[in-house]
Amino acid sequence: MNNTQTFHRTIARLTFLYAEQEKRKKLVRQELTGRFFRFIQNFRSLYDTTINGLYAKYVEPFKQRHRDLFDFSLLEAIEKAHWETYHSKLLAYIWGRDKHALVAFLNSIAGINPALIAQVKNSVSYRIKTEQKTSAGKFIDLLITDDRNWVIAIENKIDAKVSTHETGELQITHYRKWVAKEFPGFNRCFILLSHKNNTKYLINEKEWKHCNYSVLFKSLLSIVHPDRITREYQSAVLSLLCDKNASVDDVSMSLYGINQFRIFEDE
Known about the structure:
alpha/beta, 5-stranded mixed β-sheet
């Protein structure tokens, strides 16, 4: 066999081997694709089963107990559901008329000094001021004090982040310093109430405690006999936490949404 024949036979053999290799690769791809689609089908079935089970366990009982909270709230109607000032004003109203609601809120936040909570609980009276102006012309969203022993400063954030002043100082740092100066010797408490996760701003601000709106909402649910305004506000907070654009019979059909209701469950 001459070199030309050997060359052509080698090319033919390589062509055959390449075709066989491509055929095997195609079969492997088809097998992997089939296994993937079967996995997705099984996963989807498992997901639906899990969602339905969790919905029945957490969401449905909550809806039965608090069905009226799914009604359109006044803050939603006037398009102020994401306005921090309105939330602060309503919280001042609720906590001003119901000390137990304020204590429930404080008890729900990790790291708050129990001695301060006891002082609040035993207080005969206290005042709540919104938009407390500081020496630098800044405004603390909520300032609560009995004017003798304890003071609580709350910075309220819905969609906003913690701002930084022209000096490079965080607003919560300025508020902490101002409160310490204005209320020397008082048992002080600082709370960053935030709908979004703003915990990163507390890395260097150890005196501030973080609280999200899910925790706030659960504390509001502890109010035994809420009046009309309180119930309206509970509905407004629920609108922040859950998709209320859906009907009451088709709300929060996702693991994230259902998790909101799981933490509202009575302990």
